[in-house]
Amino acid sequence: MTAAPHLPEPHPSAMAGSNGLEPFPEWVGDATAAERFGSPAAIRGALLPEQVGEFDAAFDGALTAARQTLHLDQLRHVLRMWRRMALMTEQDPDGHRQMLVTSAEVQRTGRPRPGSVSWSDLKVDLGLSDRTR
Fold first, then answer.
1. Read out DSSP for 27-58?
2. Is 70's pLDDT higher than 50?
3. Residue 12 needs a FRET pair 20 to 30 A away by CA distance; which of 3, 25, 109, 114 works?
4. What are the DSSP E strand ranges found in the chain?
């Protein structure tokens, strides 16, 4: 088993949304992503062609929800998530494309990739769970 990639730690300034919901974490890369991709057009322009339709659908759904609820929480969430995708795409377009291909294959076949481990086993390996195998 190879070492898991280092994931950014939640930013200590994570705050609750204005509607009183649980706080949402901010990650170190969020500031960079927000700076690089400050508009929906910038986000869309940085994505791989195969991601654009999914972004458009998510953005449209979030706009519809904002019009209906008069809350921007879902729109902010969608933009934050897609800024992260745009940043990952910009940093390693070939690796990101391979991740999308692999994910689509797993979803299509319902089978994990050879050499992969389950989430529950990974949590045990990382010491995040006391479940024994």
1. BHHHHHHHHH--SHHHHHHHS-HHHHHHHHHH
2. yes
3. 3
4. none
User: What is the spatial distance between Cα 105 and Cα 111, in angstroms, rounded to a whole number?
Assistant: 8
Q: Is residue 16 part of a domain?
A: no
Q: Is the pLDDT of residue 96 over 80?
A: yes
Q: How confident is the model at residue 79 (pLDDT cuts 50, 70, 90)?
A: very high
- How far apart, in whole angstroms, are the C-alpha atoms of residue 65 and residue 87? 25
At a CB cut-off of 8 Å and minimum separation 6, what does 109 contact? none
State which amino acid sits at residue 15: M
What pLDDT is attached to residue 16?
42
Number of domains in the chain: 1
Greatest pairwise CA separation for the chain in angstroms? 48
Q: Is 9 domain-assigned?
A: no
Q: Is residue 133 part of a domain?
A: no
Whether 131 is in a domain gets the answer no
3-state secondary structure of 10: strand
Residue 5 has pLDDT above 70, yes or no: no
Domain range holding 99? 28-125
